[in-house]
Amino acid sequence: MIKSELITLLSEANPHLLHRDVERIVGTVFEEITAAMCRGDRVELRGFGAFSVKTRPARTGRNPRTGEAVAVEEKHVPYFKTGKDLREQLNAQHGS
């Protein structure tokens, strides 16, 4: 599912809301999650999962073409851990 499909689905499920208002709501939710992660905060949506930021330390890598050593800087990467409820629902659906 892509963002526009989510917005359409929510608009159809909530006919009392204007489509543009649903767009703003979804956009705001994503912006807030992004802002929290940029601050280094963890974002937990109970039953769904948790978003956090992991740090990958600097290291020496290799250029695959030449084999030459290359310095790779420290990186901050997004990480998502599924919640227990989501994991159980997925396993119940695919286990049947």
TrEMBL record:
It comes from the Bacteria. Keywords: DNA recombination, DNA-binding, Transcription, Transcription regulation, Translation regulation. GO terms for cellular component: chromosome; cytosol. InterPro entries: Hist_DNA-bd, Histone-like_DNA-bd_CS, IHF-like_DNA-bd_dom_sf, IHF_beta. Pfam families: Bac_DNA_binding. One of its GO terms (biological process) is DNA recombination. GO terms for molecular function: DNA binding; structural constituent of chromatin. Heterodimer of an alpha and a beta chain. This protein is one of the two subunits of integration host factor, a specific DNA-binding protein that functions in genetic recombination as well as in transcriptional and translational control. PANTHER family: DNA-BINDING PROTEIN HU (PTHR33175), INTEGRATION HOST FACTOR SUBUNIT BETA (PTHR33175:SF5). Belongs to the bacterial histone-like protein family. This is Integration host factor subunit beta. It comes from Iodidimonas gelatinilytica.
